[in-house]
Amino acid sequence: MRVWIDAEPTSQSPTIFGMTPLERILRSLAKLVHKPSEVVVSCSDAIAEGHGYRVVRETGPAGKRLGEYLSSGKDAVLVLDGGAVVDHRLLPLLMDNDDGICLKSGTGPKETALLKLAPHGSVPSDATSVAAIATAMLAAGDVEEINATDLPNFVVNLRRNVPFTLERIADEKDRASLERRMFLMNYKGSTDFMTKWVYPPLVWQCVKFCVRWSIHQNTVTVASILLAIAAVPLFAQGYWLIGFLAAYGMSVLDSVDGKVARVTLTDSPIGNVLDHGLDIVHPPFWYAAWALGLGASTAGGPLYSALWWLVFFYVADRLVLMVAKKRFKRGLHAVTTLDGTARTFIARRNVNLVVMTIGVMIGLGEQAFYFITIWQGLTFCWHSIRTVWLFPRSRFERYLV
Fold it and tell me: What pTM value is reported for the model?
């Protein structure tokens, strides 16, 4: 499988989250598990060669340049528009599809397309762009058009279906709109009310700051880890205000790092391990610190007993969710609308943090801790019941798309 990219002209390409469309395409190709045998960037501009691709400086209509390249090898060719923002998920889907297909998007100056062509195929030599090539070949019946809505677009980590992005940017307003949409598309389909409704404006500003100053998402993750650790002794010693500041700071950064990674195509296995590992490990330490800060000093005291029940319910709940994910091939909260809605208010870190904050502020910290323990127990029961109910294949398969 070869890849041919029409990068003519490149000088007019806008930047999306600090990268031109061509740079985003090349980064997406570099991250593919199954690498193409060759990646060629065709243009008249002086573009520097890089690892994994070569630049062919040539002039003339896109159709003529592509036709010459098609005839030069025996492998099928994935044809990309170097001036379009191409969703990285589309690349392996088209590469695994049959030859003689195309995917189109936009109209007028925003028109663009992707094609997968057989070697030695006939290409209209006078076509001036990839979109023009697709239009002419469709009219001639040489390719079959596929619809992006017919391609699988469920993202497991985001627990929802995410529309594909394939478009050209006409002006600055377009660019700003696309960046905002790409940011929002990288939010999970089911999450707590703080992440869904309260944090996004702040997270958006943090993401733009990180992109502008080239702050890597792993740096953000390390900062969130340090804040999560710092909150433990602060809570345990009763320094609630500073402890809450550290905890909420960590909670915000926990949303920032993943967004930065996805919009800049810089996510990595180690980053995912650090991020998700922190989410699972740190809550019991916060809960223990809350109990200590409230005065849980004796093994027989009610706060001490509540802490053990809280940790038990938390661990048991995580185990149930692991069973559900293995069975349903996606998180429980992504199976039905009901489960996704329940995720907004169930006992998770951010929800418990808000309850504890309100409790301490109004002088009912101990009562808030007992409420969190009970709420975590009810959450465990809810997830257990839902997992058992949906466990038969006929029950959950009808919800999957």
Answer: 0.92
